[in-house]
Amino acid sequence: MPFSVREGINVFLAGFIPTENLRFREFELVFNISDAVDEFALLSKTAHYNYDAMCKTFEGFKLRIEPGTFSNSEIIVMLGQNGTGKTTFIKMLAGKLAPDEGSKVPELSVSYKPQVITATFQGTVRGLFHKKIRESMNSPQFQSDVMKPLRIEEIIDNEVKQLSGGELQRVAIAMTLGKPADIYLIDEPSAYLDSEQRIITARVLKRFILNNKKTAFIVEHDFIMATYLADKVVVYDGTPSVDCVARSPEGLLSGMNRFLSMLNITFRRDPSNFRPRINKLESVKDREQKQTGRYFTLDE
């Protein structure tokens, strides 16, 4: 029997088909924030950094960045419409762009995965990894935490230039995490990945950042993936492609409420796995949440 849309999505996230008593994935994806903290054994944050207010101007576009702070063992997700400057800020953090005004970001080692990935390496994936991340590739921990779940072994001997978009994305993510760094800057990790791969990639990123006590700034347009990953969010507002502001990093609840209020959209959570679900515009739930200013809630 076919499932309803809600049932089908929840079965997929659970990795288990109850009507057939069949498990097709070793883990389930749960969006309960406290459970996620327990699952990944989040350690106390021991390093804290800050950056000053900055500004970057291009022809016809200006981005202003409010000052902010961040810590290790923390993932900051950047939320904003297209053309609001998310990739520009990532490039400034990576040292690829210098600010026109304000101090530079803290001088920390950075590993950067750009939005656009170009396959220029002549050779196989194995050869690329041996050249770029040999030490990580030989680490049993990296193999089990990153390489295995991303299923790199299946394409390890393929020519880099022959990889599909999704395969290239998985290779780029493994490459980025394989480079020792203090901050990992990852631009749109879910691009070209199917639903199953997005779930796996989200877990890989969260596990790696928390277990290794690193910091990640991630640009992500998949709202479910962004919600699962984020400890804090940077919200972008203003007029896209004209004049925008990157707000200071703030907590997941307040940041999501700010972002969704700009879009005039409300989300509730599924009671079985706490998955964010969009409310129908002008529905009873939509009106109730807007009246109380709770566009996004962590309550059951």
UniProtKB/TrEMBL annotation:
Q: List the Pfam families hit by this protein, alphabetically.
A: ABC_tran
**Domain ABC transporter residue range list:** 42-263
Write down the superkingdom of origin: Eukaryota
What keywords tag this UniProt record?
Answer: ATP-binding, Nucleotide-binding
GO molecular-function terms, A-Z: ATP binding; ATP hydrolysis activity
The name of this protein is ABC transporter domain-containing protein
